Amino acid sequence: MGDITGFLKYNRQTATRRPVEIRKKDYNEVYNEMDDSELSIQGARCMDCGIPFCHEGCPLGNLIPEWNDFVYKGEWELAFERLHATNNFPDFTGRLCPAPCEGSCVLGINAEPVSIKQIELSIVEHGVKDDIFSPIIASLRTGKKVAIVGSGPAGLAAAQQLARAGHDVDVFERQEKPGGLLRYGIPEFKMEKHVLDRRIDQLTKEGVNFICSSIVVNVKSEQAVNVQGGFNEVRISDLENNYDAVILTIGSTVARDLNLNGRKYNGTYLAMEYLKESNLFCEGTQAKPTISAKDKNVIIIGGGDTGADCLGTAIRQEAKSIMQLEIMPEPPKTRTLENPWPTWPIILRTSSAHEEGGQRLFSVTATEYLSDDGENLSGIEIVQVEQIIQGNTLSFNQLAESKRILKAEMVLLAMGFVGPDLKLMEGYPGISKNDRGCISVDQNWFAGGKNVFAAGDAVRGQSLIVWAIAEGRSVAASVDKFLMSGTKLPSVLKPYSYALR
Q1: How would you class 267 by CB atoms within 10 Å of its CB: exposed for 0-12, middle for 13-18, buried for 19 or more?
Q2: 249, CA 20 to 30 Å: which among 154, 307, 359, 367?
Q3: Closest CA to 448 of 427, 467, 468, 469
Q4: Report for 199-208, 230-239, 394-403: range of highest mean pLDDT
């Protein structure tokens, strides 16, 4: 610890946001950069505690006090090395992770936690400027071939680890470009896609081969063609036979729908349908989004991060009005006695999008989609709800007298995901579902068949990007051990079901 009284002398500071009226007119990232002197002070706030709870708060086991101290001392290259020792993509997590490490920071007991996420992001961006962001190419090749299905953060982390271990890695992706939801779900104003592209370029130089517009199926089928429309079909049995190992990192992409009366009316979309169109527009693939909120009254159902992403996008598309609905009660602004440190703080969070506009309603649910002409959406009926907790069971009681109608020409469903899309692989002996509808694996991430593994949201269910990267690193270690009868790759996690035992 470079400054033993730093946590007493300095206040928490994070990057400032660009002015609302300016950033609403573009899709550039919201946050300004912090200069080195400001970051050094924030690094000095880290207490180098005897028991660093931030290590446990982060699924990756990031060595946070070490790189905080390096930043305080201005030793950026050492900070870059220590950061990447546990995290393949801190430029992703520094932008997109909700920072459970900060929620468990010891300083947070009675003060504001260290600005860990901001320091993390600044380290990797400093590395880019200092030209130490470069590929790490394996000195020896093993001759082993690994197929990875899915190029989200879990798949990318597994691919990088295995390529650096000397294996030949092919990544199959159903979309037009690699990245999964990092590319097609995350808005540009949260992470500009050049950040993803420079990582894809790094992986490619390290030997990872990306095969896009390819969908993996159990058998050749008309259903697969209808779903993907002319994309290449790859049989999973061919992958199992032609590769020494197969890893399924297909994410949790089946969206939770809201099939109320009137769902068929034009104007209701799943969040990812909407966000993908906006991202295609931002990257120049489309002249304009085919789904646009311009001049419409928009209702977003779902109060989480995806809902906020829809909010920020609709604001930039110049929606007439925006209302975001959340079924849960409004959280408190600070921790309650029932939510003490170091548990995750359940508090009201205001994202950059909420700062830009729109309204939020809590403790409400939609009961019906409405239409004036029987074809196009004109509004929704909502009702106030009361939360009821009985033991471990959570339910909601509708308050009948509270029904009202909200005008809307567009409704965006941002209520999360229910599990991985396995319909095209159903019946394959190497894949079975657990009781949560996700891919079942053993404690070594082995899914079945002779060489099929799985990890990430496909196994855990929808979760945080840090969990996906950590599981990608862990399944890579298991696959390396499977192929080579031993491994030097780090493994920090057991699968979700085994972690509970």
Answers
A1: buried
A2: 307
A3: 427
A4: 199-208
Helices (H), 52-115: 53-57, 64-73, 76-84, 90-96, 100-103
Neighbours of 321 (CB within 10 A): 16
Q: How does DSSP classify residue 455?
A: -
Question: In angstroms, what CA-CA distances link 310 with 305, 328, 357, 415?
Answer: 9, 19, 12, 12
User: What is the SS3 assignment for 406?
Assistant: strand
Interatomic CA distance for residues 190 and 279, integer angstroms: 11
Closest CA to 301 of 349, 353, 351, 360: 360
Q: Kindly state the tokens that stand for 407.
A: 């005008």
Per-residue HEC secondary structure of 99-162 comes to: CHHHHCCHHHHCCCCCCHHHHHHHHHHHHHHCCCCCCCCCCCCCCCEEEEECCCHHHHHHHHHH
Q: Which amino acid is at 215?
A: I
Answer with the residue of higher pLDDT: 500 or 88: 88
Calculate the CA 83 to chain-centre distance. Answer: 19
Q: At what angle do helices 76-84 and 64-73 cross, to 10 degrees?
A: 170
65 is written with which tokens?
């006090």
Instruction: Provide the phi-psi class of 44: left if phi over 0, else alpha when psi is between -120 and 50, else beta.
Output: alpha
Q: Please name the residues in contact with 269: beta carbons below 8 A apart, sequence gap of 6 or more.
A: 291, 410, 411, 412, 413
Contacts of 75 (CB under 8 A, 6+ apart): none
What digits encode the pLDDT tens for the residues 4-29?
Answer: 889 999 999 999 999 999 999 999 99
The number of C-alpha atoms within 13 Å of 368 and in the hemisphere containing its C-beta is 7
If you ran DSSP here, which 8-state letter would residue 28 be given?
S
- What one-character DSSP code corresponds to residue 310? H
User: If you ran DSSP here, which 8-state letter would residue 331 be given?
Assistant: P
Tokens of 388: 């009821």
The residue type of 45 is R
Closest CA to 317 of 278, 349, 283, 353: 278
Q: What span, in angstroms and rounded, lies between the C-alpha atoms of 463 and 375?
A: 36
Q: How far apart are the first and last CA of the chain?
A: 36
**DSSP 8-state assignment for residue 332:** P
User: What pTM does this model have?
Assistant: 0.95
Check: CB of residue 328 under 8 Å from CB of residue 343.
no
Return the residue matching tokens 């546990």: 86
